Amino acid sequence: MWSWGSRLATVAVLIVLGAACGQALPVDGPEPSAQSPVDAPLDNERYTILEMATAHGAFTIELEVDADADTKTLARELVEPVQDSYAEVLVYFYDRAGDRQLPMKRVQWTQAEGYVEIEF
Question: Which of 24, 37, 76, 92 could form a disulfide linkage to 103, CB 3.0–4.6 angstroms apart?
Fold first, then answer.
């Protein structure tokens, strides 16, 4: 069961993501698709947001994606609008077609280390 603090934090995150709508997102590497995730619904062709949580200066996002998704670009698109508000952002990627309960990848962002991706 979600506490009121968790619910308020989730609403705050959604407001921050909504406020970023319409802004160009700088991305190193390949150009993002025409529709940025912050402009898209929580469930779209590129990903489905399964869960979001904040605690102690960290923001965690769990996504379901196709196995061949460009996870680094997706993580950047989701992290950049909120990175000034958190010390750490973790984006977990689950295989949309898989039946594993563990994520296939995680991208961690911190100001000190930047983006670090690991495969599980």
Answer: 92
62/69 Cα distance (integer angstroms): 14
> Which CATH topology does 4-119 take?
GMP Synthetase; Chain A, domain 3 (3.30.300)
3-class DSSP state for residue 106?
strand
Domain ranges of the chain: 4-119
Task: Label residue 41 by pLDDT band (50, 70, 90).
Answer: low
Task: Report the C-alpha gap between 56 and 5 in whole angstroms.
Answer: 12
Q: Which residues neighbour 105 within 8 Å (Cβ) at sequence distance 6 or greater?
A: 71, 92, 93, 117, 118, 119, 120
**Per-residue pLDDT band at 45 (split at 50, 70, 90):** confident
